[in-house]
TrEMBL record:
Protein name: Uncharacterized protein
Sequence intervals crossing the membrane: 74-90, 102-121, 150-168
The organism of origin for this protein: Micromonospora harpali
Keywords: Membrane, Transmembrane, Transmembrane helix
Length: 197
């Protein structure tokens, strides 16, 4: 996968700060949110496949205390939007190979958000699609919901992690173009004291 390296100069404003001086902190906050979401899905999978709980009772961690969370399409759609916004907002801080992988995650998340929008629309309108009795997304026609969302989370997470790895270990050309806080400080185009995540 190759893509031209970015030559964008740092900009001011919120997006400029998020992709410049605060890029590393913003990525860490985003990663925390993503990992917390992953934990919920993994606990739900454990409840179903290891503990043998019926799917409606397998609600993850928060869903055990707040059952309405699992069935709230607003919550699921809201999370899909948060993911989409973070992936879009933090993209400018990436260059070269890392930007390519980050863009792959963004594109897949855009489709994932469409699937959640279809579910939300069905709940809000009371009209079920595809002749189903419950809200159903397009790929849910071939994969059960729990498995489908484990798949979606994986295919967004994997390129995102590859992008972050490459971003923190840029080649010389990429490092010269970086304007964010992730890989040390620069003086006159040279990097000083790069550090790992």
């Amino acid at each position: 996968m190759s893509q031209p390296l970015s030559t964008a100069a740092p900009s001011s404003g919120l997006l400029g700060r998020l992709n410049g001086a605060h890029h590393r902190a913003a990525l860490n906050v985003f990663l925390f949110v993503v990992l917390a979401h992953w934990a919920e899905h993994l606990v739900q999978a454990y409840q179903i496949w290891v503990l043998g709980m019926p799917r409606p009772k397998a609600r993850g961690v928060l869903g055990q205390f707040y059952p309405w969370l699992v069935s709230s399409e607003w919550l699921h759609y809201g999370y899909a939007i948060v993911m989409l916004v973070f992936l879009f907002a933090l993209r400018r801080g990436f260059v070269g190979r890392a930007r390519t992988w980050w863009t792959v995650a963004l594109a897949i998340q855009f489709w994932h958000h469409i699937e959640h929008f279809l579910l939300l629309w069905q709940v809000q309108s009371g009209t079920m699609f595809f002749g189903q009795k419950v809200p159903t997304s397009i790929l849910q026609l071939v994969l059960p919901r729990v498995e489908l969302h484990l798949f979606y989370n994986s295919v967004v997470f994997i390129p995102m992690v590859i992008a972050m790895y490459l971003h923190l270990r840029p080649n010389r050309q990429e490092q010269e173009l970086m304007t964010c806080s992730c890989v040390g400080h620069r003086v006159a185009g040279r990097s000083l004291a790069p550090h790992a995540a």
